[in-house]
Amino acid sequence: MAEVMACQATEEQPQWGGFIAGRGYKPRNREMAHQNLMNNYFNPNSVYNKEDFRHRFRMRRHVFERVLHDVQHVNPYFRQKLDIAGRPGFSPHQKVTIALRMLAYVSPADAMDDTFVVQLYKEEYLRQPNPADLDRLLRKVEYRGFPGMIGSLDCMHWQ
Q1: DSSP letter at 151?
Q2: pLDDT of 6-61, one tens digit each?
Q3: Domain total in the chain
Q4: Do 80 and 142 belong together in one domain?
Q5: Residue 78 C-beta-side C-alpha neighbours within 13 Å
Q6: 144 and 103 inside one domain
Q7: C-alpha closest to that of 138 among 125, 152, 154
Q8: Residue 82, strand partner residues
């Protein structure tokens, strides 16, 4: 008769996060990806110029750098940390790039109400336009062939 082996009690592993014995390391080349990002867009003499940067990130470089600086001071997630094995995690530039892509392509706008972006920039950017803003916007859209068009794309209308 075959002998039945009982499972031996072992230390419980946490369900999420941390190192789990027996799992292998998968190199993600974070350092190389960071260096590529820096060489392509942020270092002096970068591969892409400021127009390429604006096309890729939908903002000017100084705006990206302001967001990068601000979010690192507000939210520790955006600072680079070491993982459990002592390897550097994703860089702040990588984290902000990904966060901006998520905001732009994945999440619905109403899911972002409580995020750091709203906290940091609400007063400056998330407000109704004042008369000077409206005048500037009306001149811009008229120049582009849409006279009188303010707010019609998002179903908001200002007097």
Answers
A1: S
A2: 333 444 444 445 556 666 767 778 899 999 999 999 999 999 999 999 988 989 99
A3: 2
A4: no
A5: 18
A6: no
A7: 152
A8: 88
